[in-house]
Write a structure and sequence with these properties.
The complex is a heterodimer.
Chain A (H helix, E strand, L loop, with lengths): L4 H21 L1 H38 L5 E5 L7 H9 L4 E10 L5 E7 L1 H4 L11 H7 L3 H11 L5 E3 L1 H11 L18 E3 L8 E4 H7 L8 E4 L11 E4 L7 H4 L1 H42 L4 H46 L11 H27 L13 H27 L8 H34 L5 H55 L4 E4 L5 H9 L4 E16 L2 E10 L3 H4 L6 E2 L4 H9 L3 E4 H7 L6 E4 L6 E9 L8 E5 H8 L5 E6 L5 H11 L13 E4 H40 L1 H13 L4 H43 L9 H28 L2 H10 L1
Parallel strand pairs in A: 3-6, 4-5, 11-16, 13-15
Antiparallel strand pairs in A: 1-7, 1-8, 2-3, 2-7, 9-17, 9-18, 10-11, 10-14, 10-17, 12-15, 13-16, 14-15
Helix pairs in contact in A: 1-2, 1-10, 1-11, 2-10, 2-11, 2-12, 2-22, 10-12, 10-15, 10-22, 11-12, 11-22, 13-14, 14-15, 14-24, 15-22, 15-24, 15-25, 22-25, 23-26, 24-25
Chain B lengths: L1 E12 L2 E13 L4 E6 L5 H8 L7 E6 L2 E2 L5 H11 E4 L11 H11 L5 H10 L15 H14 L4 E5 L7 H18 L2 E5 L3 H4 L4 E6 L2 E7 L13
Parallel strand pairs in B: 3-8, 3-9, 6-7, 7-8
Antiparallel strand pairs in B: 1-2, 1-4, 4-5, 9-10
Helix pairs in contact in B: 3-5, 5-6
Classes of the chains: A alpha+beta, B alpha/beta.
């Protein structure tokens, strides 16, 4: 039957207003919904904002200088100079010179500087420096590109920098576009020009200006080779890749995946609140929905109107959530940026930079989650039996059937988690994704199982308590009443379980890692002082230090880069050269050796074998006794693996040889010198030595003073990096617990009136309001404690999985499982606190309710 | 106005099908009133639900104001309920989150027939003018049922279906509500089909039918009582 439009619109408008009027009478439910959406959206979008900003920084870093671009070096190991650039260009090779260094500004801040030759490199936009050099060369003569190059070349030149870099300089040096900053030595930089395509924290200048500022003379740091260049190189040169061959994006993928997983958990916990609120709103509106149907509103119209209501609520909760997420990201990003810089040398701006898809993605994720949470409501409305009035509360038989179904489902989900654990990952599936899928299944299975277990505990306790003592009678009533409340509290309890288990798991993992890391740091930091002389002054400094009576042992360390050659192909690895003297070998920790003989492993190193870090061992399957082959300037270098050592905080594979081997086979440049001081050295002697070590050495010509850092400073810096790395993780887990508390609070608030209806008859039967208050708090506290007790084994399992699977997949190292009973007690206390805080307001209202109100509730009961 | 022909309705039970209506025929003319009586479980409410299009018969034909209700689709039946029918339930079924004023105009607005004059008149005659901003929970039982009656009549339906409208009220309130209901029905000119247990309530209507074992057993014609309220409405 066709309806007139006006009539149809009137019906839709009236029905929508009527549906929404429910929230006017139940503002607690509306608040619960909006808060759920708000926190879910805030935590998720906060994490995504951090990830999006970091990825934007990586993209710009890669756009500036791709990690995969090939570089050239001299076969004789001598540093490159402009003469090499000229030689190669004369040979017809498309190469571009590069200078990399660091300058100190007037306020002491140090910034990386990249000096490029825009004409030979791209003759065009700086943002495409790493792009195809052939293509850049082809466009070099074009006027529009040429203009850009000319700006960089022509006096006074330009200092190009990212907007974030300018923002940080604005704060510290009052810099602005066009300003000419002064370096610590008094030199002036070319005028500042903002370039949004550049990564944060780097200044880009013309190569001539950079060479002048860095006092490089004719030396250059790199020659970049176009990917399209011919295969054969002139005699005396060879190809090399950049340091790791991995982009910052690839290196930090695990870090961001961890953050995403935590964000997803927060989203799920927030959506549990939404689901609970929607369920409650539907249950209380079943009568209204049936009335509306009886008064002539068609079922599909009602479903559509509820969908409209969902969208309206979604927008009202999600948009403020997005803003809160941005605030959260702004607060957390500096720590994340510092961690990423320290751990992976990945440049991340400390200010947010968000692409358009961040907004669309965050909105879609939260609204999608809301739609998922609301599907049940729409389905129940579509299937509403118009003649079945007032059957909102499930009967015991219905509850039993639902629990049975839930238990079966939980068992299936847990089984799937076990299968993922036991079964090898399908080829091409990242291990970390599989690990997270397993954790997600484990948490979902446990959450599904929780109401079943709680119901069983309540039933068991009810049977165990024998009346007729008044106390037991009241306790039995409280248990029976809790059984009735359980369907409405179960989602909040699930949220609490997930939050507590995650807190326990993460706290166990971080705590265990902290213990292991600090222990490892103590073992690795053998020397009291670490000195890094300028390369030209390395030999004179070493010779001088060897004569000093204050120094008992000199631990030289060098570094280089090479490739590990295996049947599966080549992979970049770091090389480390050590001095295996007893002062170092007696403390340096080893994880695995041939036949468990640590001294034999060190002797093997002295004899030319290699040690490898745990990351490389896990990634390649290499273990003590295996043979490894490394690319070296003189051809492949083959040796055996003597031992595997822990190397926390290093994202890359590393091979350790003796310093002598590194010099002779890999032409490793001079590195640092560790100084073990004589025992009993007086403070004044130490101070005098430090004074000497921070001044130029007279026998080293004009070389500047070396860099000196002491063990305590290194220790403190490492601890800071560690704490910063996990600050975000801990903040997010704590926030998830806060969300769970909020979930419980809003659930209780939403059903506060119904609770009074149930408690009023007891009051009428002679119980004081104080007793009722006590019963209410005991009910909630008991339920939360039971949930926390069930969260303990789940948290421990999660801790184990994080250590055995996620950590290994994400970072490449294993940790021993540490158990912290204090954190269990803390979790139980927290659960109790959360429940009591959540119950406080409804209980207070009950306690303050005047007798007349209770009488009305009694009459309504 | 309402014509029900050879209506059959049965419900499935664990013991087999339970026949509730077994060939019921019923006719109600425009403006007429009819009381449907019978014991609990006799099928009175089922018959009322069928007449309201809330349920469909297993067989038989229902024609409401010339439109075949028994074969109408769900949206068509919803539209008929909205525009042609007024429903009064024993449990009131008011919307707790809407004020008295909004509850009263709910169905009229749903049907796009909100008439402010009639609305004000109803509010006054129902004795609710002073409490238009209150919520249903703040009203007495009698006031709530008066409001439910007003809601059903606010859209000027052609037929009012009432299911035990005074069953939840005390005697005094029931009498007052019934008198008001009959007055308003008469003034609005709609037909009335009322399900009731009470012979005294039934006696106030023009016709009375009794349902027993799924069949309409007897019918008589009562004197016109619409203008003369009885002493005991229950």
């Amino acid at each position: 039957m066709p309806w007139p439009n006006a009539s149809s619109l009137a019906m839709v408008r009236t029905a929508l207003v009527t549906l929404l009027s429910h929230y006017r009478r139940h503002p607690g439910q509306l608040a619960m919904l909006l808060v759920g959406l708000w926190v879910a959206s805030a935590l998720w979008s906060g994490v995504q904002a951090i990830n999006a900003s970091a990825r934007d920084s990586y993209a710009r870093a890669e756009a500036l200088l791709s990690p995969n671009i090939e570089r050239l070096e001299r076969r004789d190991g001598e540093p490159l100079a402009y003469a090499d650039f000229a030689t190669l260009r004369r040979e017809g090779l498309p190469v571009a010179p590069l200078i990399e260094g660091e300058i100190a500004l007037r306020d002491g801040e140090r910034l990386p500087v990249l000096g490029i030759d825009p004409l030979s490199m791209s003759a065009g936009r700086l943002g495409s420096v790493s792009g195809n050099l052939s293509k850049s060369a082809a466009t070099a003569s074009k006027t529009d590109d040429g203009d850009n190059s000319l700006n960089l070349l022509q006096p006074p030149g330009q200092t190009r920098l990212a907007p974030e870099t300018l923002a940080s300089l604005e704060t510290s040096l009052d810099a602005s576009p066009g300003a000419r900053l002064r370096t610590a030595s008094g030199a002036r930089l070319p005028p500042l020009v903002v370039d949004a395509a550049l990564p944060p924290g780097t200044l880009v200048l013309d190569i001539a200006r950079a060479a002048e500022l860095l006092e490089r003379g004719t030396r250059i740091d790199g020659l970049l080779l176009s990917p399209g260049a011919r295969a054969t190189l002139p005699e005396g040169y060879r190809r090399t890749s950049s340091a790791s061959g991995l982009s910052p994006g690839q290196l930090t993928e695990s870090f961001h995946l961890n953050l995403t997983a935590l964000g997803l958990l927060s989203l799920v916990v927030g959506l549990l609140i939404v689901h609970a609120a929607l369920g409650l709103a539907l249950e209380q509106r079943l009568g209204l929905l049936r009335t509306l149907r009886a008064l002539g509103v068609p079922g599909p119209t009602l479903v559509a109107l509820l969908a409209v209501e969902l969208v309206l609520l979604g927008l009202a909760g999600t948009l403020p959530g997005l803003l809160a997420g941005l605030w959260l990201a702004r607060v957390l990003l500096p720590d994340v940026a510092a961690s990423l810089e320290a751990l992976f040398s990945a440049p991340v701006g400390a200010t947010l930079s968000l692409p358009w898809h961040f907004w669309a993605g965050s909105l879609a994720m939260t609204l999608g989650g809301l739609a998922t949470a609301g599907l049940g409501m729409l389905w129940r409305t579509a299937k509403l039996d118009i003649l079945a009035l007032g059957h909102a509360q499930p009967s015991p038989a219905q509850s039993y059937r639902r629990h049975k179904r839930q238990a079966v489902l939980a068992a299936i989900v847990w089984l799937a988690a076990l299968v993922l654990w036991v079964w090898p990952a399908p080829p091409g599936t990242p291990r970390l994704i599989m690990g997270f899928a397993m954790v997600a299944l484990m948490l979902a299975g446990s959450a599904l199982c929780l109401p079943v277990l709680l119901a069983a505990i309540l039933e068991g306790l009810k049977r165990w308590l024998k009346p007729p003592s008044p106390r037991a009678t009241l306790a039995r009533w409280a248990l029976a009443d809790l059984q009735l409340q359980l369907p409405r509290l179960q989602l909040a309890m699930m949220a609490l379980l997930l939050a507590l288990a995650t807190n326990l798991g993460v706290a166990g993992m971080v705590g265990g890692f902290r213990l292991t890391f600090l222990d490892w740091l103590d073992q690795r930091l053998v020397a009291d002082l670490y000195l890094r002389p300028p390369p030209a002054a390395h030999e004179p400094w070493r010779d001088w230090l060897e004569t000093r009576p204050e120094i008992t042992t000199l631990l030289e360390r060098r570094e280089a880069e090479t490739r590990l050659i295996s049947q599966q192909g080549e992979r970049p690895v770091s090389l480390q050269g050590l001095t295996p003297v007893p002062a170092l070998t007696t403390r340096w920790p080893l994880l695995a050796t041939r036949s468990d003989d640590i001294e034999a492993a060190w002797q093997a190193l002295r004899d030319g074998e290699a040690l490898i870090n745990e990351q490389l061992s896990i990634a390649t399957g290499l273990s003590p006794g295996d043979t490894l082959t490394l690319a070296s300037p003189d051809g492949p270098f083959t040796t055996q693996v003597a031992a595997v050592y822990p190397d926390y905080g290093n994202p890359r594979g590393e091979v350790t040889l003796t310093v002598e081997r590194l010099i002779t086979r890999f032409a490793a440049p001079p590195g640092s010198l560790g100084l073990v001081l004589a025992p009993g050295l007086s403070a004044s002697d130490k101070a005098a030595l430090r004074q000497t070590l921070t001044s130029p050495l007279p026998t080293a010509g004009e070389a500047p003073a070396p860099t000196l850092i002491d063990q305590q400073t290194l220790h403190r810096q490492a601890r800071q990096i560690f704490e910063r790395t996990f600050a975000v993780t801990q903040a997010l887990t704590a926030l998830t617990l806060g969300v769970a508390a909020l979930s419980l609070f809003t659930s209780l608030l939403a059903q506060a009136r119904e609770r009074r209806t149930r408690l009023a008859p007891l009051w009428a039967l002679g119980l004081t309001r104080t007793t009722l208050l006590g019963v209410t708090l005991a009910q909630l506290g008991g339920l939360a404690l039971a949930t926390a007790l069930l969260a303990l084994p789940l948290g421990l399992t999660l801790n184990g999985v994080l250590i055995a699977e996620i950590n290994v997949a994400a970072f490449g190292w294993r940790l021993p499982l540490h158990v912290f009973p204090a954190s269990w007690a803390e979790a139980l206390g927290l659960a109790l606190l959360v429940a009591l805080l959540a119950a406080a307001l409804p209980a207070w209202r009950l306690w303050r309710a005047p007798p007349r109100q209770l009488l009305e509730e009694f009459n309504a009961a | 106005m309402l014509e029900m022909r050879d209506i059959h309705k049965a419900y499935a039970t664990p013991q087999g099908d339970l026949s509730v209506l077994d060939g019921v025929d019923l006719t109600l003319a425009a403006g007429a009133s009819l009381a449907l009586m019978g014991e609990s479980g006799s099928g009175k409410s089922t018959l009322l639900h069928l007449a309201a299009g809330l349920d469909t018969p297993d067989s038989g034909e229902i024609i409401l104001n010339g439109q075949r209700l028994s074969t109408a689709s769900e949206p068509e039946r919803a539209a008929l309920r909205r525009t042609q029918l007024g429903l009064v339930f024993q449990q009131f079924h008011l919307v707790p989150s809407l004020s008295v004023d909004d509850n009263l105009s709910l169905q009229a607005r749903l049907a796009g027939r909100d008439a402010p004059d009639w609305h004000r008149q109803l509010l006054t005659r129902l004795g609710l003018a002073e409490m238009a901003d209150r919520y249903p929970e703040q009203l007495s039982g009698g006031q709530q049922q008066r409001l439910a009656i007003g809601r059903a009549l606010a859209g000027r339906p052609a037929l009012l279906l009432a299911d035990e409208p005074t069953g939840n009220l005390d005697e005094t309130s029931a009498e007052a509500v019934l008198t008001l209901l009959l007055e308003l029905v008469r003034d609005s000119g709609c037909a009335l089909l009322m399900v009731t247990h009470s012979a005294r309530v039934a006696s106030r209507l023009e016709r009375r039918l009794s349902l027993s074992h799924g069949r309409l057993l007897d019918e008589d014609t009562a004197p016109d009582t619409l203008a003369a309220p009885g002493k005991d409405a229950r």
